[in-house]
Amino acid sequence: MLSPAVASQLAELVAQARADGLAVDGEGGLLQQLTKIVLESSLEGEMDAHLGYGRHDRAGMNSGNSRNGKRSKTVLTEAGPVQIEVPRDRDASFEPQIVRKRQRRLNGMDGIVLSLSAKGLTTGEISAHLAEVYGASVSKDTISAITDRVLEGMADWQSRPLDPVYPVVFIDAIRVKIRDGQVANRPIYLALGVTVNGERDILGLWAGEHGDGEGAKYWMRILTEIKNRGVADVLMLVCDGLKGLPDAVNAVWPATVVQTCIVHLIRASFRYASRTDWAQMAKGLKPVYTAPTEAAALDRFAEFSGTWEHKYPAIIRLWTDAWAEFVPFLAFDIEIRKVICTTNAIESINARLRRAVNARGHFPTEQAALKCLYMALMSLDPTGRGHAKWVVRWKAALNAFDIHFDGRLSAGRI
Questions:
Q1: Beta carbons of 288 and 297 less than 8 angstroms apart
Q2: 3-class DSSP state for residue 141?
Q3: Staple 79 to which of 19, 22, 31, 245, CB 3.0 to 4.6 Å?
Q4: What's the pLDDT score for residue 383?
Q5: Are 401 and 167 in contact (CB under 8 A)?
Q6: Does 135 have pLDDT greater than 70?
Q7: Rounded to whole angstroms, how far apart are CA atoms 356 and 372?
Q8: Higher-scoring residue by pLDDT: 399, 24
Q9: Residue 321: is it exposed, middle or buried by C-beta count within 10 angstroms (0-12/13-18/19+)?
Q10: In whole angstroms, what is the distance from residue 413 CA to residue 391 CA?
C-alpha cells in the first residue's frame, strides 16, 4: 500500500497533468512519471523492511547498517524506459525484489515480447515494434533470450502426465518451412485429446521429416510416449490417412478404433477431379458417408463408382484404400458421427497456428518452429470464453460413447 505522502504526490501529478495538458503516454508522459513514483516508493518500502526502520528514524542509530545513497538505473516498462533511483545500504546486503539487481525489464515487458512472438513476429519485427510504440531499444539477442525462457516450460508441458482415458484423440499436421541446409516443408504433428468431461487437452507437438517419411516405427514412438505419460486407453483416434499410424495404434492400444477424417477424404477426392465436376461428385458422395449402415454405404459407393470410375479411377482407388478407416463411424449413432467424422475440432487450432507460421515465413531450426507453435498454443483463448461451448458440444456424444464402448469411458472418470 502506498504511503499518504506518495498518494498525495500521485494526486498532485495527476492534477498537474490535467492542468498542463500533459500527454498520458510517450516520453516524459504521465504514465512514465507515475511508474517512476510507484517503483521508487516500493523500493524505499523494501529498504525500510530490510533495515527494520524507516528513513530518519532514530531507531536506526548504531544499528550496524544504514542507507548509503542511491544509484540511477533505467528499466524498460510497459510505459517505456523509466529512470529510477534505487536505494543502497552500507553493507550491500539489500536485495530488492520489485526491481531486482541487474534487472533491466519489468515482467510485463517480457509478457509483451512473448505475446508478439506467439503471433509470429520475428525478433527484428518485435524490436522495431518496441522502439516504435514504447520508445525502447531492445536488441534482437535480448528478445531471443526472453523467448528462449519458454523452452523449459515447453519441455515440462510436452512430458506432463496425461489422463488415463480419452474418448477421442485427433491427430493432424501443419506444414512449416524450416531451413535445414535449404528451406523445406516439414510437418509438425499436433495431437488433441477430448477428456471424459468433454474438455480440450492438447497432448503435444512432434516434428516430422520432409515428405512422407513417417511410418509405423515413427508413430509407434509417438504413441508409446503418450501411453508412457499415463494414457491407458483411447476409444477412437481420428486422423487424415497418415501412413503407418493405424498399425502403430493397434500395437499400442489394441481396442482403439481408427477413423479417417471424412472432410479430408472428400477434399483429397476433389484434387483428382475437374472443378466443373465437384458439385456433382459431392452430391454422389454424400449418400456414401451418411448411409445408415456399412452395407448401405457399399451399395451407394458402387453407384458412385459406376458413374465416375471411367473418368476418375484414382478417386475410386482412394476411397477403396481408405475404406477400412472410413467405415467405423457408420456403426455409431448420429451424436457420435457429428464429432468424429471430421477433424474440425483440431482445424480451429491449426488455423491459429498457421497465422503464426505464415507471419514468420520460415524458421532457422526445428526448435525455433516448435517454440513458435508452442507459444501460439499457450495464447489460445486466454479468456476461457470458448471453453463452455466446447464442453456443451461434446456432452451428447460422450453419453453415446459410454454406451457404445461398454463403460470404458466411465472407467476413466473413476
A1: yes
A2: helix
A3: 31
A4: 45
A5: yes
A6: no
A7: 7
A8: 399
A9: exposed
A10: 16
